[in-house]
Amino acid sequence: MTAIYLIGLREGLEITLVVSILVAFLVKSDRRHLLKFVWAGVAAAALLSIGVAALLQAGSTYLSGPRQELVDAIASLVAVVFVTFMIFWMRRMARQMAKELRGKLEDAIQVGTFAVAAMAFLAVAREGLETSILFFAAAQGSDTMQPLIGISLGLATSIVLGYLLYASAIRINLTKFFTWTGALLVLVAAGIFKYGVHDLQEANVLPGLNSHAFDVSGALPPTAWYAELLRGMFNFTPQPSVLETIAWVAYGVPVLVIFLLPLLRKPAAPAPAPAVQPTEANPASTNA
């Protein structure tokens, strides 16, 4: 549930920021009569995202055996591609997202009200579809309500934070927020990638299902809370196959390094100048 809460929080805050930018632009430019078209586009995008999530879940439920494992594996791999693109795109576009959205909305207003709704729909649908696919991939294998609770709590938290930001009740360093949540999502994506490889092995597409890299099940009881946390957050299993382990490391390590590289390359802040002693600042003062 922790990983899915993070997905809901991160994706939900992106959606909330998009909507708040569009709403603020219309309010400040005295075009409140267009708000209903923005909200119509947002509602349509939300319905599409929920529909896609339900369709994926229904399709997985009706399938069985290797076909189900293959569908789950494809969904996991697609989710990894989405989350990788999303975290790097957001790091690059975060500072100019507001300017870009306002420009697109201004262009849509010149076309007409339908274009305004379509623009809002497209802006939100992209994030919503990412959320649906990530939720489906992260929730695989769970037969409880925890994934649904996690995504609901994450989205609810993001809505509250988004409203408070819009109302200027709080201030958040969004660059740091998206950087550190992005780093955590890289590890979550590594776990999803590992899960996808496991499904491909179960579907007999890849070999080595019973060739284990290590076995720490004795030291890591599956019912322990910390085992559940590791499994839920990073898809850690006490007895992974060799290919699963290679997949996790091969994706997680280089992507995390590349993502955090700009932070590591930032020049260190200049050292403060040494305090000047009174005798150095004004030698005559010592003779006063």
Automatic annotation (TrEMBL):
The keyword Transferase belongs to this UniProt entry's keyword annotation: no
Pfam families membership: FTR1
InterPro entries from the UniProt entry: FTR1/Fip1/EfeU
Membrane topology recorded in Swiss-Prot or TrEMBL: Multi-pass membrane protein
Keywords: Membrane, Transmembrane, Transmembrane helix
Residues passing through the membrane, by range: 6-27, 34-58, 70-88, 108-125, 145-165, 177-197, 245-264
Domain of life: Bacteria
Subcellular location: Membrane
Tagged with keyword Iron: no
Family statement drawn from the similarity comment of this UniProt entry: Belongs to the oxidase-dependent Fe transporter (OFeT) (TC 9.A.10.1) family.
Name by which UniProt lists this protein: FTR1 family protein
Organism: Dactylosporangium salmoneum
Taxonomic lineage from the root: Bacteria, Bacillati, Actinomycetota, Actinomycetes, Micromonosporales
